[in-house]
Design a protein that fits this description.
Layout (H helix, E strand, L loop, with lengths): L2 E10 L3 E10 L4 E6 L9 H12 L2 E6 L2 H4 L8 H18 L4 E7 L1 H12 L5 E7 L24 E6 L7 H10 L4 E6 L16 H18 L2
Helix pairs in contact: 3-4
Length: 225
C-alpha cells in the first residue's frame, strides 16, 4: 500500500502558523485530526506509531503542533489559543481530504482541547471525537470537573483508556461515559497506563497493547455514520 507523508503549515488566524504532518494511505476512507499531549509534540514516538498504524488500516491522520510546542515553550497554551489551533487543523484536514470521513481528538491534553472546542462550537464536518487517554484529572487528584463540558459535545465519543492510567480513575470515568448516553463508548486497555504501556507480567507487549488501541479506533471509525 502506498502511503504519502506531507509536511505542511497550518495557519491559525491571529496567532500564526504551526507545523503539521498529513499521513495518507492511497485507499484512505477517513482522516483522524490527531492532537498531541501536553509534554510532547506531533513527532513523538507514540504519535508516529499511531499515524503509521492507522495508515496501515486505511485511515489518514493529520498531526499538528499547538503554538506553545511550535515555539518550544513548556507552558501549554491558553484554552482559547488551543481551541483555535484545533479548528484550524480540522479546516486544513477537511480541505486536503475532501470526501473522507473526518474524526478529531488526540492524546491526553490534545483530546481534551478538541472536545472543549467542539463543545463551544461545532467543528465543521467532524463526525466523532476519539480520545487516546482522556486526562480526567491530575495525578493523585481524582475529580470529574474536566468532563463537565462533554455533555455539550453533541457527537459520538470514543474513550480508549488504560486501567492503570493515573490521570483517569476508571471508577470516575465509567459513570461519566455512561451518563453521556449511547453515543459515548469506553474501551479499556487491560494493564495499560496513560500511554498504554503494559507491565511485563501482563503477558503481552506494549506493541500488542497499541495494536488493540488501533484496532478499536479503526472499528469505531468505520461504524460512524
Amino acid at each position: 500500500m502506498t502511503v504519502t507523508t506531507t509536511e505542511l503549515k497550518v495557519d491559525i488566524e491571529g496567532i500564526g502558523a504551526v507545523s503539521a504532518i498529513l499521513t495518507k494511505p492511497a485507499d484512505a476512507r477517513a482522516c483522524y485530526v490527531f492532537a498531541h499531549g501536553a509534554g510532547a509534540g506531533m513527532r513523538h514516538a507514540f504519535m508516529e506509531s499511531v499515524a503509521a498504524g492507522l495508515a496501515a488500516r486505511g485511515i489518514a491522520t493529520l498531526r499538528y503542533n499547538f503554538p506553545y510546542m511550535e515555539k518550544k515553550e513548556r507552558r501549554t497554551d491558553q484554552p482559547a489559543v488551543a481551541h483555535a489551533a484545533v479548528r484550524a487543523a480540522v479546516e486544513e484536514a477537511a480541505r486536503r481530504n475532501s470526501g473522507l470521513k473526518l474524526i478529531a481528538g488526540g492524546k491526553s491534553f490534545g483530546g481534551r482541547m478538541t472536545s472543549q472546542a467542539q463543545a463551544k462550537a461545532q467543528l465543521a464536518g467532524v463526525r466523532g471525537l476519539a480520545f487516546l487517554g482522556f486526562p480526567l484529572h491530575l495525578d493523585g487528584k481524582p475529580s470529574t470537573q474536566r468532563a463537565d463540558h462533554l455533555a455539550d459535545v453533541g457527537i459520538p465519543l470514543l474513550f480508549i483508556q488504560g486501567d492503570r492510567d493515573k490521570l483517569a480513575d476508571l471508577s470516575l470515568l465509567k459513570p461519566v461515559v455512561e451518563g453521556l448516553g449511547p453515543k459515548a463508548k469506553l474501551h479499556v486497555i487491560a494493564g495499560g497506563d496513560h500511554s498504554f504501556a503494559v507491565l511485563r507480567k501482563s503477558g503481552r507487549s506494549n506493541e500488542e497493547a497499541l495494536e488493540e488501541v488501533l484496532d478499536t479506533l479503526t472499528a469505531w471509525i468505520d461504524k460512524l455514520d
